[in-house]
Specification:
alpha+beta; seven-stranded mixed sheet; 19 helices; 44 strands; about 20% helix
């Protein structure tokens, strides 16, 4: 083990203008000469339009005119161009000769004419030629004229006294359709003749039409066919003429008493017949025919003719390096110098390649990220190749692989790899600086894979969370996957260094003096912060030789001082540094070998948080459950709120450390289970996502580590254990609500019919009501048989599926009415069963879930670090506390004269009491028969028994007397709630509840008689009544009256004493509302101020199967996580002596 000093090597110099761009830079912008002799498009067919309508009554519409046809396009012309270098005074220019000839086409009067080019037409060598002799497009087919409409027939004469009405005349016929015509044919492409001397054949590269087969075809392509026309529309027939109207009249006959009126009638005429629609044309139309492709001919020395020019492609290539990283092709290491050799070129064109040679280079304008071309290498090709022939390329190319700046890529990374496409290009050379690029010389390129020859594949291993005063094993492995040894004693002599240091970011707040880091037996503490910002940092370990394929593992320990506070954090960095390659031992390029740099090639990070140690005690009131992602701010905020503001004793439990919330789990190898340790306490779960040290689970919340949920009916914890889930996700809440599926039903009862089920339920619920309390909170299932009656599926009433759905709806309505306190899942099953007697039936399974009266979990979904003056946070905690602890908080608030906490606690007293009243009323519990009032009104009973409050009453000063008086006043407001006094109904349930409450409040008043101020009590009652009435008037209107039969008074009182009262809680803090878990199946709790009834849900068999499967997975996952975390901590945690094995590095022979 040794340290070393840094050495440096200046980066390789990359020329601003590589040599293969020099010719391009010497030329001005290229110009293009256009020679176009395209044929004209054929004339389109005519569109006569609509013919004239008939003229006069009953006249026929005129026939539509036939369209003229679309004409054939004009053929492409003939271009004959000769190019050659000139030896005149126009040195460096091309002389252009030739002629263009317009074609003669059928349908045009003029004939083709020849126009010669100017004989002294000179262009610079940078000029490209665009030749075009495309055939003209065919004309579009004509559209036939539409027939004229027939006229209406003449109108019949009206009837008179002396004659009947006349008939209407016939309507005129519609005109016949005019015929449309076919599209014209496209014309043939023209002829292009290009003439060059053999020594000037390179200039064919300047003709765009010779660039590729597609380009040549485009230049002499045939004309596109004309689209077909269409026939006209037939004329509409004229309607028949309307018949004449009828005529009625009366006459008087007789005289004297025999006079009478006689009616007479002459009928009208009939309407004439309608005309006939015009006749249609039956023959189909078609598009024209595409014109044929013309001819492109290249004449060389007027002795050879070709249909296409030469075209060079890279046929094969060899890419080599002395420092190959792998045997696999095209995998190389960063900082390597790579040789491109053995390049073979093939002529894939149609004629022999030019005499002049071509440069081969890296593709121009390629945006290389890691490939840095070497300016000192060049390749060229000078062999003439016949079509399909191949030939070698002289010279080699090379490039360096640029190394990335690893420290810009983050603190923790997998082995860095980069893929980049290497593309080569070829440029045809000619006289006077002529150059053109072969566009498809290396079109696909070669994908290069760049890597480092040393890497870490297993991270910087260690526990991400440890308790103060404890430690973790640390492992860091370095692997050489390359073909060559590394290290200063290897053949190549490349330095390989690993360094360990502390990350200096502000969020890592554990001071170095509280960290004890040893790696491979070397103490690293003194250098944890050395050289922050330089290449060398912390403690350095020189690996003298790491053989090819070998792995070197550093083992160490990391311990934290016992003084480190919970959820402080640190990050240990491990970096692998490697010296740049020695490219040339003979130093042919003048390389300064002594200045080669050592640079980081990979970084790994171990982030560690300090977690609290769990110390269970019977004197604590709250368990704060946290995990590795809990922030220090969050932890301290909750600790301050619970301890300093509420005066409660706290114990801390980290699921990242202990790995389980199973009630049977015994932490610290102790004799006490979590169920026993948490008994009688509030468990506050900071439900942040964390990584639980299990490869199959990336992230999860601590609450999802409860194998059976948090409700006392299934959790396995004592009924006196209460839960507050802070920051739970929607998925975590859904899992908690469905956790009743984790408990197998205590009994499965089969019912032969729906009526039998209803009868049994009524008897059971009636027995419960008579007892005056909800006693059966078990999870159970009932299987109800529904007789299968196969009927006519076309009838809705006889459809078996509809029938079982109606039965399920009936069960839902029945349960909503009879048992509003419990959650039910109703599952109609499609499967068909048969009795022994052959009777077919289906099943409806009814699962009874959680009960509202047994709720032990509250949820605070808006998770932010609470402040001590945050009223909503105080509401959340006090609402979730066991009753005895809540009374203790009230007593602490009296002693501390904490007005906000007193107000919050009294509000929770009111909420609890209204909740208990709602349970009694919704469950129709007979309060008169209730012997154990702890099961009906536990809040009042606990208050009456509270020794702390009796002590306050006995020795009450002004503050204690005022607090007790106000608390008694609030309970009195609930007991005397106006909607519990339903008028002239002396034996109603509401009156019984009111009577029992008033008696209990009276007993409480007697207990506290010495410490009560009647004036304070009455003042508080009047203030509450005023606030409640003001809220009810604002909500229900200014004409609100004191309705006794509705539950509005309790709703108003619950509103005034809850987070909804913005006048009280709007400025108290930032936490959101806290809701009982049993009320969160729907969003009803978000807008209604009352006790929410658990839902009765009808769901499919597949959904139920999925929920059961998720429940089973939840239990399995909890067990799996415990095993995984325990295994990891047993493997990485320190033993009693803290000793580790030190692996010594090898020496290369």
């Amino acid at each position: 083990t040794a340290t070393a000093t840094a050495i440096s090597l200046p980066p390789p110099t990359v020329p601003a203008h590589p040599p293969w761009l020099a010719l391009e830079d010497e030329h001005t912008e290229r110009s293009i000469e256009h020679f176009t002799i395209d044929g004209k498009a054929g004339q389109n067919g005519s569109q006569p339009g609509r013919a004239a309508d008939g003229f006069g009554d009953g006249a026929h519409g005129h026939r539509g005119m036939d369209a003229t046809p679309g004409l054939r396009g004009e053929d492409g012309g003939i271009i004959d161009v000769s190019v050659s270098m000139t030896n005149t005074k126009e040195t460096g220019k091309i002389v252009v000769k030739g002629s263009v000839q317009k074609s003669s086409a059928v349908g045009y009067a003029h004939q083709g004419s020849i126009r010669p080019l100017v004989t002294t037409y000179f262009v610079p060598v940078t000029t490209d030629f665009n030749l075009s002799a495309k055939g003209g497009a065919g004309g579009e087919g004509g559209v036939g004229g539409s027939g004229g409409n027939g006229k209406a027939g003449f109108k019949g004469r009206n009837a008179t006294r002396y004659s009947s009405g006349g008939n209407g005349g016939p309507g005129g016929n519609g005109g016949d359709v005019g015929a449309g015509t076919n599209g014209g044919d496209g014309a043939k492409g023209g002829d292009i003749n290009i003439r060059v001397n053999d020594q000037d054949s390179y200039y064919l590269m300047a003709f765009l039409c010779c660039d590729s087969d597609a380009a040549s075809t485009h230049a002499i392509r045939g004309g596109s066919p004309g689209s077909k026309g269409r026939h006209g529309s037939p004329g509409m027939p004229g309607p028949g003429g309307r018949g004449g109207r009828s005529y009625s009249w009366t006459t008087t006959e007789g005289s004297g008493d025999d006079r009478r009126t006689v009616s007479h009638y002459n009928p009208g005429g009939r309407s004439g017949p309608n005309g006939i629609e015009g006749r249609r044309v039956g023959h189909p139309l078609h598009t024209g025919i595409r014109g044929g492709v013309g001819n492109l001919t290249i004449h060389v020395d007027n002795t050879h003719q070709y249909s296409s020019r030469y075209d060079l492609r890279l046929s094969s290539v060899s890419i080599q390096s002395r420092q190959r990283l792998h045997d696999h092709c095209h995998i190389f290491q960063f900082t390597d110098l790579i040789q491109i050799t053995d390049m073979i070129c093939q002529n894939v064109g149609g004629m022999i390649s030019p005499i002049q040679g071509s440069n081969v280079h890296f593709k121009e304008h390629a945006k290389f990220k890691h490939i840095v071309p070497n300016s000192d290498t060049m390749s060229w090709f000078s062999t003439r190749l016949a079509p399909t022939a191949i030939g070698p390329i002289q010279g080699d190319l090379s490039f360096r692989v640029k190394q990335p700046n690893i420290r810009e890529l983050g603190f923790d990374m997998e082995p860095f790899r980069a893929k980049e496409k290497l593309c080569l290009g070829a440029t045809q050379l000619g006289s006077y600086g002529f150059r053109r690029t072969y566009r498809k010389f290396h079109e696909d390129g070669i994908t290069m894979d760049f890597r480092f020859p040393v890497e870490n594949r297993t991270k910087l291993e260690g526990l991400p969370s440890i308790c103060a005063g404890e430690g973790t094993r640390v492992k860091f492995s370095v692997t050489n996957p390359s073909l060559r040894d590394l290290g200063i004693k290897s053949q190549d002599g490349r330095r390989l260094v690993v360094q360990f240091y502390k990350n200096g970011l502000e969020r890592y707040d554990i001071a170095s003096r509280h960290i004890d880091l040893h790696m491979d037996g070397v103490e690293c503490n003194s250098k944890l912060e050395d050289n922050q910002g330089g290449i060398w940092r912390g403690t350095l370990f020189e690996i003298s030789c790491l053989k090819a394929g070998e792995t070197k593992t550093f083992n160490g320990t990391l311990k934290l001082n016992p003084q480190v506070t919970p959820y402080s954090r640190l990050a240990i960095q491990a970096e692998i540094l490697l010296e740049e390659l020695k490219h040339d031992t003979n130093n042919l390029n003048g390389e300064n070998l002594s200045a080669r740099k050592v640079m980081p090639v990979q970084r790994r990070q171990l982030e560690v948080s300090s977690e609290p140690t769990y110390v269970p005690s019977t004197d604590t009131h709250v368990v704060l459950v946290s995990c590795a992602t809990t922030t220090k701010e969050q932890f301290n905020a909750w600790s301050d709120l619970l301890s300093n503001r509420l005066g409660l004793n706290i114990e801390y439990y980290s699921v990242s450390i202990y790995g389980s919330l199973d009630p049977d789990f015994k932490p610290l190898n102790g004799d006490i289970s979590l169920a026993q340790a948490f008994k009688g306490k509030l468990v506050v779960v900071l439900d942040d996502m964390f990584n639980p040290l299990d490869n199959s689970v990336s992230k999860m919340e601590p609450s999802r580590m409860l194998p059976n949920g948090s409700q006392s009916q299934t959790s396995g914890y004592d009924q006196s254990t209460f839960w507050l889930l802070s920051g739970s996700s929607d998925d975590a809440v859904k899992q908690a609500l469905a956790s009743h599926f984790t408990a197998p039903p205590n009994d499965i009862i089969n019912f032969a019919s729906l009526s039998a089920f209803k009868k049994a339920m009524k008897e059971q619920l009636e027995e419960e009501r008579q007892a005056g309390r909800v006693s059966d909170v078990s999870i159970c299932e009932s299987a109800i048989r529904v007789k299968y009656q196969k009927g006519n599926r076309m009838s809705w009433t006889n459809d078996p599926q509809k029938r079982i759905e109606r039965k399920a709806d009936a069960i839902k309505s029945f349960l909503e009415n009879m048992d509003p306190l419990r959650q039910y899942v109703i599952e109609p099953r499609e499967e068909l069963f048969k009795d022994e007697d052959g009777t077919s039936y289906q099943l409806i399974v009814v699962r009874r879930g959680y009960c509202r009266t047994a709720n032990t979990t509250n949820v605070l979904q808006r998770a932010i670090p609470p402040k001590q003056d945050d009223g909503n946070a105080l509401l959340a905690v006090v609402k979730s506390l066991p009753l005895d602890t809540m009374l203790l908080v009230f007593a602490n608030a009296v002693s501390a004269e904490d007005e906000l906490l007193l107000d919050v606690t009294m509000d929770i007293f009111v909420q609890h009491l209204i909740w208990e009243v709602s349970n009694a009323l919704d469950g129709r519990l007979s309060i008169r028969n209730a012997e154990d009032l702890d099961g009906v009104f536990p809040t009042l009973q606990a208050t009456i028994r509270s020794s702390e409050l009796k002590q306050i009453a006995a020795g009450a000063g002004n503050d204690g007397s005022k607090a007790l008086s106000e608390l008694l006043a609030r309970m009195d407001c609930v007991a005397n709630s106006r909607d519990l006094n339903p008028g002239p109904m002396p034996f109603s349930q509401r009156r019984a509840v009111r009577k029992k409450l008033r008696k209990m409040v009276s007993n409480l008043e007697k207990e506290w008689a010495e410490g009560i101020s009647e004036e304070d009590r009455r003042t508080e009652i009047k203030m509450l009544e005023k606030e409640v009435l003001a809220h009810l008037k604002e909500t229900y209107g200014s004409f609100f009256t004191r309705v006794r039969s509705a539950s509005r008074w309790r709703k108003g009182l619950l509103y005034i004493c809850s987070y909804r009262n913005m006048a009280k809680y709007k400025d108290a803090g930032f936490c959101g509302p806290t809701v009982r878990l049993c009320e969160m199946e729907t969003l009803e709790h978000t807008h209604k101020s009352r006790a929410i009834v658990p839902s009765k849900t009808i769901t499919t068999e597949d959904n139920c199967r999925s929920m059961r499967q998720q429940a089973d997975e939840q239990k399995d996952l909890a067990s799996q996580l415990l095993s995984s975390i325990e295994d990891t901590r047993n493997r990485m945690g320190l033993g009693n002596n803290g000793e580790i094995e030190v692996q010594l590095p090898h020496n290369c022979s």
